Sequence to fold (340 residues):
Amino acid sequence: MFGRMLFVGLRTSDRNIIKKLIHECHVGGIIIYSRNYKTYEEMINLVNFIHQEAEDAGYTILVGIDQEGYRVNRLPKEIHNLKSPYSFHENTDYLKEHGRIIASILASTNINMNLAPVLDIKRFDDNHPIGDRSFGTTPNEVIKNTIPYINEFTRQGVIPVVKHFPGHGATSINSHFLLPVILRTKRLLEEDIAPFREAIQEGCNAVMVGHFIIPRFSLFTPTSFSKKSVQYLRKTLEFDGLIMTDDIDMGPLKLCSKARIIQKAINRGINMIMVKYDDHFFKDYKKLENTKLNQENIDHSLQLIDGLISKYQVTNKVVKNHLNIKEVNQEIDHLNKHAK
Fold:
């Protein structure tokens, strides 16, 4: 049942492939993108289809999205785009409203996991890979702004996944294209990890680990599937929730064997591996079925996944389109007027 440790990003809207992912691989989650639909009606139909297929397959599935607003916007165009989190960083109330609006849209669509917010510190300009996606320029500002933001999602039954541990703000390199090397380990451990430590202490349930090379932390193994990352989260930060990789189809990692990366991640204690679907997915899955995997880690991961599903009362219910898009757009337009 290691398939439930796979969180698969949809490169396709082919219903037959989605059925196969669910019925043959029992994938634990599916991530949807704006390329998968043009309208909100199409979006909610896709989400309902995923849930219905999982129900038929006999398990509860996570449906995820990374909806941050502005640069990272996965909602259909008929829903107006929110300004970036950083454009509201001077006012916690505006940021809470930012989070509330997104959480409300996702909850009404039965999207039960949001791969956000970023807890990375803003050290570079707005166009940096993190830039205006950040909530502040100092650890304290990020903490002050993100804890209430996270609470807006948990309050509405949407699982927030904080990212990119241990901190993408420590490098100017974009991990979507390259594998950043972070040498300033002391600053990383003193500053960048602070927001993650605080979020964990406040009850955060899921952490996404980014793709970085940090020689004095995890030697030359990418942090996303490093045993050191797991040990630091579990022992030093006393985190007992879900540890997830960033998408392994990024940067130089896309040149590596996905089956091999997934095997390493599972055997080193990662609980969910994010991977985009491609033409080799089912072949890689078959390879993993015949590969030595740590059953204890699989069992622990499934316990954590089921625990999250239970805590957030995730179900495969089919929902109707009750979202008042006109009203939501008015709320978004009103909030955007306060952006700086």
